[in-house]
């Protein structure tokens, strides 16, 4: 409370109206920055938990807008109040702030006259317009916080429900795998051993994944609860302020005490939520899972080592959704590659016209070879097949036509030699069969 004021304050009175104005300017600028930052914090949780955005993406594209809006709007409004000399001592507050002076003044004819320097804020219309603007600003922040809180809670509930359904289906699948192991067995021992090891490895992997998902899901629920606590803290602190702004009467009684004490304990509430997160994060390690609360707090405050390996994007609820998105994206890319490969294979399988032109005029019809089998009856009445029992016509190589200009004679010669060799082995085969 400054010395040069009209209030009969019983406590110590220090400094003057200039220091009160500086205090009011800083307090208004800080609070106008802080109120939207509560909304930005809730939006940050929604971006990570619901929309699965990376921290780098948020800090690069979203946070600069939040900071610029908060700083610019707070600075402009604070400078307007400074220009109109609207910072005064307030007996119903713990510091100098924006207030009419004196606080009990009214604009009625018989009431206490308000200080007036000729600015719009010191008129009755200007004062209530400023009051409504402040009230709507607080309500807008409340609306954002309520929507974010509902989205976080609903998203966490749906995520846990989906995980439970998937866990149940995986349990059924594991039972089917067990049944397949006890069913009919393959006659190949190597295949049996391989299948058995594959199924056991898959079951072990599934059990490990289920355990990790269950533990991570618990921490995901804690993070969602932490986000809800931040939002509820804002409601607890600023609801009395909204009630006092709605009231046209002089502030007194429980409303004043609740607003004064709760607003000054705001930092303490935020610290408690932050430590709540730190303790749970510390207990995630295996050797500290049952660490008492007091011991955990001592370790957090006394240790200079950064033990916080926690990021919102690393929790299970975000990781699993991000994995699903990544798998769907990779499947789409793979499908596009398969289609491209099929098109390329079809193009490659088409005959090349330039290569076919080299063999123009050549007939690739096989030389005619015919065999006439005859039964030879021996003296004992049994039939036998001998070399004389069949005849084959000699292929006529003159039937093969070629164009010397488009075909190499050496290849034709080698082909004829190969055909002669094939006839020789066929004759030897039939002769062997006859002798048998």
Automatic annotation (TrEMBL):
Keywords (A to Z) from UniProt: Membrane, Transmembrane, Transmembrane helix
Biased composition (Basic and acidic residues): 425-436
Biased composition (Polar residues): 170-208, 414-424
Membrane-traversing stretches: 29-53, 65-82, 136-159, 222-244, 256-276
Region (Disordered): 170-210, 414-436
Keyword Transmembrane in record: yes
Name this polypeptide is given: Uncharacterized protein
